[in-house]
């Protein structure tokens, strides 16, 4: 029986991971989900497991030392997996203060409390693990060639990725200084169910369904390397149980695509499947694509070399990109209420301030 402290478990990846672990290990896992429920946190992501006897939700901030201390005091935590973060680059360009607070100060609080309760003399108790969920963005931006490897120097270029890189350095320092059993994972762009529609793929799906244009920043030729969230969750599980303390693992599925390719693919697949659904929109025109003002400092290309986790931990991605996208489109079409709930009110304020007249 392992007790997991999952932070940010009501967000996109954290909720997928929580459900994945409970489904896989069931009564052999106990999950405590600590989440502040920011605009991105949504308890509806966890409806299928909320009544599970081995699941407990705590609303709170990872920066709250008293609260985090009490969680460690009252439970024997085996694993900490930190998903909690401010995660959207565009928001960090508008205002970066909360990014530094949550992503940098928050990790220090979590590390200090884990250290306090896990350390016994000079050593750590056996079988504990602290995994920091980082991102490929910490490596900066690639041109046409090359891949991010674990040894690639950190060179973050926007306030979000800078805060994630700062956290990585702090996490690594706890390994080198205290021998704390940490791992860092750096994954590429995720897609899949429950992703908040400020991110590119759910945003353009939601726009299509609401007869809005698909905004492509700049010339639409920036490249991201996509992975289905389920493949990411499996990789984190493998790192938790088999990752060597102190090591960083890149996670990716070799799906490098220009943003415009993704937009065209989504139009193609939506036009194939929409007639089977009860939506007033039945056809998405290729003219739905609209080029808008570029993101400031827009990173050109991300591409992950994940041979380390493949060779050392025997993980590889399993979900084919085209199949994963179709599955994701169907999920959004079948979960109209989930999408409607989070795209009224505050979301439209954000959307209008970002995109109107862009
Ligand atoms: P998300 O924005 O969907 O979810 C973040 C969650 O953290 C939300 O539930 C939010 O309420 C919670 N949270 C925010 N601040 C908090 C705080 N101070 N205390 C407690 N909870 C707080 O993000 P996501 O896309 O699921 O990303 C999860 C993690 O994975 C992040 O650390 C992100 O940097 C990393 N990551 C994301 C991607 C991606 O493509 N989405 C890729 C690689 C790495
Ligand atoms: O409206 C849009 N139009 C557009 O062209 C949006 C929201 C995005 N884009 C572009 C920008 C990027 O090139 O699409 C690409 C993907 O954008 P995002 O979904 O905002 O992701 P990105 O900036 O690549 O960062 C993501 O991957 C790394 C996650 O948001 C991070 O949390 C993760 O660490």
Automatic annotation (TrEMBL):
Q: Which co-factors does it depend on? A: NAD(+)
- Per the record's keyword annotation, is NAD included, yes or no? yes
- GO molecular function (one): dTDP-glucose 4,6-dehydratase activity
Q: Which reaction does it catalyse?
A: dTDP-alpha-D-glucose = dTDP-4-dehydro-6-deoxy-alpha-D-glucose + H2O
Q: Which domain of life is it from?
A: Bacteria
Residues annotated as domain NAD(P)-binding:
5-327
GO biological processes: nucleotide-sugar metabolic process
Q: Keywords for this entry? A: Lyase, NAD
Q: Which InterPro entries match?
A: dTDP_Gluc_deHydtase, NAD(P)-bd_dom, NAD(P)-bd_dom_sf
A Pfam family this chain is assigned to: GDP_Man_Dehyd
Which E.C. number(s) belong to this protein? 4.2.1.46
PANTHER family registered for this protein in UniProt: DTDP-D-GLUCOSE 4,6-DEHYDRATASE-RELATED
Question: Which family does the record assign?
Answer: Belongs to the NAD(P)-dependent epimerase/dehydratase family. dTDP-glucose dehydratase subfamily.
Name of this chain's protein: dTDP-glucose 4,6-dehydratase
Q: Which organism is it from?
A: Anaeromicrobium sediminis
Q: Which gene encodes it?
A: rfbB
